[in-house]
Amino acid sequence: MATDVALSRRPTVVYTIPFSQLQFDPLSALAVATIPQGITRNFQVVAGSPTGRLLARWAGYVPAIAAREPELTGLSDFDLRKESLSLRYRARSGESLDRLLVEAFALVREAGRRKLGMRHFDVQLLGGAAVHHRSIAEMQTGEGKTLTATLPMYLAALEGKGAHLATVNDYLAKRDADWMRPLYEALGMSVGVIQGQQPQNDRRKAYACDVTYGTANEMGFDFLRDRLLKRRIDEGNRDLFGEMLGGESVSSEKPVQRDLQYMLVDEADSILIDEARTPLIISALPGEDEKIASEAYSWAAEMAPRFEEDVHYEYDHKERRVDLELDGRRLVRELPKPAATDKLPLSTIYEYIERAIKVKREMILDRHYVVRDGEIVIVDEFTGRMAEGRKWRAGIHQAVEAQEGVEVTFETNQAARITIQDLFLRYERLTGMTGTASTSARELRKIYKVHVVPIPTNRPPIRKQLDTEVYGTAEQKWVAIVEDVAAEHEKGRPVLVGTRSIDKSEIVSRLLEARGLEHTVLNARHVAMEAEIVAHAGEIGKITVATNMAGRGTDIKLGPGVEERGGLHVVCTELHESQRIDRQLIGRCGRQGDPGTYRQFLSLDDEILLMGLGPKKYKALVATGEKSSGKLNGYESTFYRAQHKVERKHFRDRKVMLYFEKERQKMQRQMSQDPYLDTAG
Ligand SMILES: Nc1ncnc2c1ncn2[C@@H]1O[C@H](COP(=O)(O)OP(=O)(O)OP(=O)(O)O)[C@@H](O)[C@H]1O
After folding, report:
1. Which structural domain, as residue segments, surrounds residue 293?
2. Taking the model in full, what pTM does it have?
């Protein structure tokens, strides 16, 4: 097993045994292991790879932490807290955190046992040590990253400069903070949570806490707002900024963040790589033109339903274009209009109407986008996740906003921008955790200068991959998927079907219904509710159909009687653009050593083949698929090759973006500008 520690007496004799079967001699950090033949001997931990050597070194902490346990378990809650305060005092007096690690981790483990009923596993201590030593700890899905994070977070927070933990969404930030709060509080540490739409004062309080949970996006925007504020204060121009923050009083005009000291990124590869592509942007105050445009968008959205196809306009289905006819133009001229539009030429007003009609026809609520907290959030059709911060171009986004009656926003006139990459590189110490980083280890090392260290699992994973099935066409594939679901359901096992988009979830849902199989479908609308539903997805006989985002960070607990039936069965209906997303879905089963199986279904008309191999090869494969029937052999590697090609392409795109971003900043520094604020253009 790759994650196990290799033990050897001489470098030539290597036994690989599960980490959980190791015991450590506290003094020499020698590992004592029972090797398969049942002979107990002393072996030095040797590991060929650099990460193996690191693991071996950190493994020495485990017995030292355990040695403190008897004393700590005997302490009262009050004394435990006192111990923590004395540690804090030592850290603030300048004692290095490395030296305090053993005592700090022992305290956290005891607090976890007392307050959460969870005593950190040895491998979690290893994970915590890895994170503390500025590595990205790769822990398999379900191994308990949330609990592991408390170790390095507590240790970092001892210095009193704040420790931040970035999660992928607001829901997870709050859930994890609330879940771990009793542990931190038992050690006298305050916990803050940053949420979208939170007032400035609350944000400032949250950042003032010892540990702060929030999303990378929110933390980035706070950084930008602070930076704008500092400049305004420097320029003595308070009024304008007050207006930008929605007219907050002058007294609240203080930065919300402290210096960026320590950042632990949960789902590190996803945040540091996937999300890093989109810059965070704060728009400047709308100018006069934007006010007019905003009124025009709203007016057009209101009027669009009065226009009929083939009477007032023509719709070109291929080009997806709307053209007003003579009658349509007449109607535009006759309709009452807001005064602001007087300043617009008639041709522009026609365009507003044409765009509003196009949006009304093509953009569907809860499929292409959702409305959340008064904002339009695009649903990424590929991953089923919300594409936070992304906007459609050419006025479409604004037209959709007007259609939904939310505030119309403009991207022009950027006041400030930062990429996630830039933000994180500004932290004094950057670390992370993830379930799926190996595939992006190189990129993480290159960009962020952090190593990825795979941490052994607590119990040997017994998740089983069932044979992949390849079909000629999507239709055949869906039929086979329903058969597979039905077969596992028959055994009383819970089944989770993961799809790439909401549309595809609907296809599965219809087929399951036709087959008389009761099931729950999740869409991308309410992250909190979805996670809740997925959390029940482990009960006997439950069938859940979900787009991928629903699976993220969600802990599917097996209901009573499920383990004996073989645990959760995960059905993967297509390959994603990145292997990581596939692994996240698979990771919903076989958690914490639970039993579980998964099966990958593929068909020769899958999108990944088009994206990875190009239209010519794709066409040929589709043609072959249409002629064939039943399960096909020999195609599996083609799919993985295509996926690999897509991954490489994204990697290149990100490198190019990073290069241009760096060049832009260099130029601005040469011009004595602030690269985060002077961004117009
Ligand atoms: N030391 C422990 N003792 C008992 N239970 C634990 C321990 N650590 C974790 N768990 C349990 O393991 C489960 C998984 O934890 P968690 O959701 O943090 O995993 P994860 O690694 O974040 O998974 P994913 O990558 O899927 O998000 C939880 O139900 C948690 O209660």
Report:
1. 288-412
2. 0.73
